[in-house]
Design brief:
By secondary structure, this protein is mainly alpha-helical. The protein is built from 5 helices and no strands. The two termini are 17 Å apart.
Length: 120
């Protein structure tokens, strides 16, 4: 691609990006499940195997995303994984979302919006 050409991401590229980030966040869930399992048990290896599968899928999606959008835009969206982590924590592990976490998520989404809508 020539230096003067700019990649413009379609809505489907953003959807693919966020599916990839969802898959990446699931690796954290699997990792925590493995940590809660007895060391070297079948369940332990199953969960860590799922971590590897999630990360492989994410790596493939990430490469496809980078073909279709600027690295800065793609990378600016990565913190969405933190928000997914909060959601998984509540629904799968009984964790509590605090007001500070909500404010942090709002700041993340504001930043993503600013990067995604900028013309540069």
């Amino acid at each position: 691609m020539a230096g003067s050409e700019k990649k413009k991401a379609s809505i489907w590229t953003f959807v693919l990006l966020h599916i990839g980030l969802l898959v990446s966040s699931l690796s954290g869930v699997c990792s925590k499940k493995a940590a809660l399992s007895e060391m070297f048990s079948f369940e332990f290896f199953l969960w860590y195997g799922l971590v590897l599968i999630c990360m492989f899928g994410y790596a493939v999606l990430w490469q496809q995303i980078l073909k279709r959008m600027p690295l800065t835009t793609a990378y600016a969206n990565k913190p969405v994984g933190l928000v997914w982590g909060m959601i998984w924590g509540v629904f799968l592990f009984g964790e509590v979302i605090t007001p500070r976490m909500i404010i942090g998520a709002a700041v993340i989404f504001a930043g993503i919006f600013l990067v995604a809508t900028s013309d540069e």
